[in-house]
Amino acid sequence: PTILNQFNDELSSLAQQAAASGLSGFEKPAVPSACTYGAYTFRCTNFSASGGNAGRVSGKLLLIGYREHFVKIVINWMQKGGQTAADADADADKVLNAFVPALMSGR
Q1: Do residues 1 and 67 make contact, with C-beta atoms less than 8 angstroms apart?
Q2: Which residues contact 45 (CB under 8 A, 6 or more apart)?
Q3: What is the end-to-end Cα distance of the chain in Å, rounded?
Q4: Are 3 and 61 in contact (CB under 8 A)?
Q5: What is the pLDDT of residues 51-90, one digit of tens each?
């Protein structure tokens, strides 16, 4: 429950930051999921918001923790012209698959 509460707080904070930055229509799935990168499983969710003429800004929130200690990772991206949303998500996951295990292992 501690991680779920922290996750919900972080997601609310992201929605507020998006609105303060002029983004609108913050969307996320109703239920977060679990994402595994290397040996680490995070509570995670994708989100997106409209950037007006700039298009949609997408992102992923990852959170892992123990008791009152948390690691939060947020990655944001814009979908390139001609790229599908699934392709953009796959590109973000490639980055996370390389970055997260290195970050968590301290290398």
Answers
A1: no
A2: 11, 28, 29, 32, 33, 60, 61
A3: 30
A4: no
A5: 777 678 899 999 999 878 999 999 998 877 777 878 888 8
